[in-house]
């Protein structure tokens, strides 16, 4: 691989509910994921995040592993109900202490923290009392929580991500019912998305007004797969473009242009809430960089009949709202999640973002893959993961050569973890976790990644 720019950031990501465990100690309140994963049938093997990787107790060991891999930046999330057990009111000092200690430990190891404020673990009380992301109060409640985090951690944290993947929260949480809070609807996702955008913008406004002296940057992590037109017919090309707009532009257009894409307004009518003029102004320009989570690619065609299996399976969103049909090439290699490995899609998506949003600084805040790797004789050989990272980083390199301002890359994930509805059946980590003993083992991919970081080190 050719060298990356000298100032390129090399990192890894995790999220609170997926690794922390310690679900009910030191004053932490329950989250919607604690509740959701206690409902029989919702999570594979009835797994929960109650113990998970026990990172809450083992974070010093985990920071030592990061240091061994050589990563320069680490993205983790703060559990809102750990800091505010019911989502509002006084902060829980023990929760604050945990994140404060983690931040100090990272800084002492020479690792820069990138902190996500919301990675899906909404305080359960806010779901019950305020209807979660559907309620009118949620954006103010989020901004108040964010303010506490800026106040308590902002002296040391200079890189913030407000929300992780509002698309997933809206579509899988409120549309398809696969993730917490498990609702199924064709209108709620668009309201949940809208309130997330307002929450994000209010938090950013507070950050810029009250905490500018901290000198940090703030953004959002949006997810998007690439959508390749199945044929070069104008219909399929339009379908692929429409799919990208319903996926990524849903959140990025309001932020860069002040409103939703025209195609969403036309097709959704009243189901898509409208911004007031003041809200448009507040949302527009509310990021300092473009955060992108990217995993895979699918072919896209204009739907000609009822929406088929692949469209749901490929994370199309509400495919019938878009009149698209997804498919894949059977010759493509697929991960254990069933996601095609198609690195060229990563380059195309980066170029699409670069072009549409006026050449923003982009950080890939997540990229990675699940493989069924096992520990054998004390080692984890995960050749498939190395090949995936190699190919996707190559695609990033090509995008940079083509002028894309890609500034950093965070592997998903630092360690195996609770993969939401899949429980522990899917392993995304550079570090293997034995869930019986909670013992950590560096995988071959972690050694390989350490090599890449070293080669590109300053
Ligand atoms: C993302 C999510 C992560 C992780 C990853 C792999 O959507 O932000 O939490 O689960 O996908 O599925």
How would you characterize the overall build of this protein?
It contains 17 helices and 13 strands. The chain is of the alpha/beta class and 458 residues long. The chain has a single domain, classed as TIM Barrel (Alpha-Beta Barrel). The strands form 3 sheets. An 8-stranded parallel barrel has the order 1-2-3-4-5-7-10-11, surrounded by 5 helices. The two termini are 17 Å apart. The model has no long low-confidence stretch (mean pLDDT 97). The structure holds beta-D-galactopyranose.
Q: What does the secondary structure layout of this molecule look like, with pairings?
A:
Elements: E1 9-13, H1 16-19, H2 32-36, H3 55-69, E2 73-77, H4 80-83, H5 93-108, E3 112-118, H6 124-130, H7 138-153, E4 159-164, H8 166-174, H9 188-210, E5 217-223, E6 226-229, H10 234-257, H11 262-268, H12 277-283, E7 290-293, E8 297-302, H13 309-313, H14 319-322, E9 324-327, H15 343-356, E10 362-367, H16 383-401, E11 406-412, E12 431-433, E13 440-442, H17 444-455
Parallel strand pairs: 1-2, 1-11, 2-3, 3-4, 4-5, 5-7, 6-8, 7-10, 10-11
Antiparallel strand pairs: 8-9, 12-13
Helix pairs in contact: 3-5, 7-9, 8-9, 15-16, 16-17
Bound molecules: beta-D-galactopyranose.
């Amino acid at each position: 691989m050719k060298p990356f720019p000298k100032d390129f950031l090399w990192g890894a990501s995790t999220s609170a509910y997926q690794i922390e465990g310690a679900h009910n100690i030191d004053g932490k309140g329950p989250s919607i994921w604690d509740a959701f994963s206690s409902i029989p049938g919702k999570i594979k093997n009835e797994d929960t995040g109650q113990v998970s990787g026990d990172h809450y107790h083992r974070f010093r060991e985990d920071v030592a592993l990061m240091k061994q891999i050589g990563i320069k930046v680490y993205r983790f999330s703060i559990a809102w109900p750990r800091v505010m057990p019911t989502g509002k009111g006084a902060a829980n000092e023990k929760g604050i202490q945990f994140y404060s200690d983690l931040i100090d430990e990272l800084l002492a190891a020479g690792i820069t923290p990138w902190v996500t404020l919301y990675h899906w673990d909404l305080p359960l009380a806010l779901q019950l009392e305020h209807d979660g992301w559907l309620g009118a109060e949620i954006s103010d409640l989020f901004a108040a929580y964010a303010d506490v985090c800026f106040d308590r951690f902002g002296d040391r944290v200079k890189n913030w991500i407000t929300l992780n993947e509002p698309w997933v929260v809206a579509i899988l949480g409120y549309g398809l019912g696969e993730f917490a809070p498990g609702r199924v609807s064709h209108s709620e996702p668009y309201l949940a998305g809208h309130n997330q955008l307002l929450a994000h913008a209010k938090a950013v406004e507070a950050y810029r007004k009250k905490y500018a002296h901290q000198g940090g940057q703030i953004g959002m992590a949006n997810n998007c797969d690439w959508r390749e037109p199945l044929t070069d017919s104008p219909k399929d090309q339009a379908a692929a473009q429409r799919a990208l707009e319903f996926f990524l532009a849903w959140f990025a257009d309001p932020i860069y242009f002040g409103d939703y894409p025209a195609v969403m307004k036309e097709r959704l009518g009243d189901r898509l809430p409208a911004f007031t003029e003041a809200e448009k102004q507040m949302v527009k320009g509310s990021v300092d960089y473009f955060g992108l989570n990217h995993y895979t690619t699918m072919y896209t065609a204009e739907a000609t009949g009822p929406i088929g299996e692949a469209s749901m399976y490929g994370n199309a969103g509400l495919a019938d709202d878009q009149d698209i049909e997804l498919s894949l090439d059977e010759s493509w290699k697929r991960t254990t999640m069933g996601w095609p490995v198609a690195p060229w899609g990563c380059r195309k998506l980066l170029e699409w973002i670069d072009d549409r949003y006026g050449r923003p600084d982009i950080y890939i805040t997540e990229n990675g893959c699940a493989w069924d790797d096992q520990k054998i004789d004390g080692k984890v050989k995960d050749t498939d993961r190395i090949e995936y990272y190699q190919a996707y980083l190559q695609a990033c390199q090509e995008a940079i050569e083509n002028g894309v301002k890609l500034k950093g890359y965070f592997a998903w994930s630092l360690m195996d973890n609770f993969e939401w509805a899949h429980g522990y059946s899917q392993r995304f980590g550079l570090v293997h976790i034995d869930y019986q003993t909670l013992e950590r083992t560096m995988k071959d991919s972690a050694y390989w990644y350490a090599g890449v970081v070293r080669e590109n080190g300053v």
